[in-house]
Amino acid sequence: MTSTPAPTTAGPLPWNQPLIGEEEIAEVVDTLRSGWLTHGPKATRLEHAVRDALSVDDAFAVSSCTAALHLAFLAAGIGDGDEVITPSLTFCAAPNALLREGARPVFVDVDPVTLNITPEAAEAAITPRTKGIAVMHYGGHMCDMQAFRALADQHGLLLIEDAAHALYASRDGLRAGSAGDLATYSFYANKVAAAGEGGVLAGRGDLLHQARLLGRHGIDSSAWQRHGKRNTADYEVVVPGLKYVMPDVTAAIAAVQYERLPDFTARRAAIAASYTQALTDLPGLTTPTVLPGVQHGWFLYPVLIDPADAPLDRDQTAATLLQRHQISTSVHFKPVHTLGPYRSLGDQTLPVTETAAARQLSLPCYPAMTDVHVDHVITAVRSLWT
Ligand SMILES: Cc1ncc(COP(=O)(O)O)c(C=O)c1O
What is the distance in A from the centroid of ligand 1 to the CA of 63? Predict the structure, then answer.
């Protein structure tokens, strides 16, 4: 299969880059020629693939993971005064959606090894107002979902998985996205399956039924279902909804990328293994740990740089890799509790989150990289320690 050319040495090596092949291009052309551009047969193909892979009741292809998270909270009836336990070391999408609906994200600290929240920390944060737990599988390393499922059931809480990083990850035989009442995927341009934009909401049938309604204006049938009928205006608005569906042009790319995940993830894992082998002895640099029973999704290859033992701190390392070696990196994440609207939520001290956020650096790790690129990153990083 021909794919877009991997990055050249002419410009900086991007920290991430999609790998789009002829199959994705052919599917898009097929969609453009079909006369049906919005949510229709291609979106349905993606939905069935996700539903079957996760063995869940239903999956709904939407415009982004942010849309999926918003629909998840709406469908679950999470709103005014409700508390949802969630990490701060994440992207702002889930906390923003909660805050917009009048709910309060209750941030708990992460485990220093996996950078995921733990069932123990979540349990300690449960109050009478707690309505749910929204976990996030950091970088593609799954949380302990067996324990989270048991905790949610014990306290009658809703369990939501933000699986934006973990489309092809598993733990103890459980696929990411299969244990929650609801789970969300991202097909954003830099994700492990990239369609530019896009998301999927998967999970329980009753909640998905409500989410489908809410995601198509509250109308009781989809445009595709009404297509070809004599009177397409024959519909009812059941609830005041929004418009969050994934168009078929996007779904054409997403469906093919989703099918390529086994190959993509194997390549990501091989790059990660090369990095770990080559960088593990550097003082002050911690390579990621994969816990037993975990099949990592490797959206990120996150290292932690302790300025007390490393020659340069995280920001100096990133700047030197870019300026001297033409290698881009990224940081995941600015802790959400330190950002604008969250600072006023009250005293929140999350020491592990804050230390990790100051030390974390994501090295390039994606299937469009060649072995030459991987060696270049290894040599460049090691050169900072000599
Ligand atoms: C953990 C997490 N959740 C949600 C999102 C939002 O995804 P999208 O851009 O598809 O809305 C991101 C995006 O980076 C993310 O990292």
Answer: 12
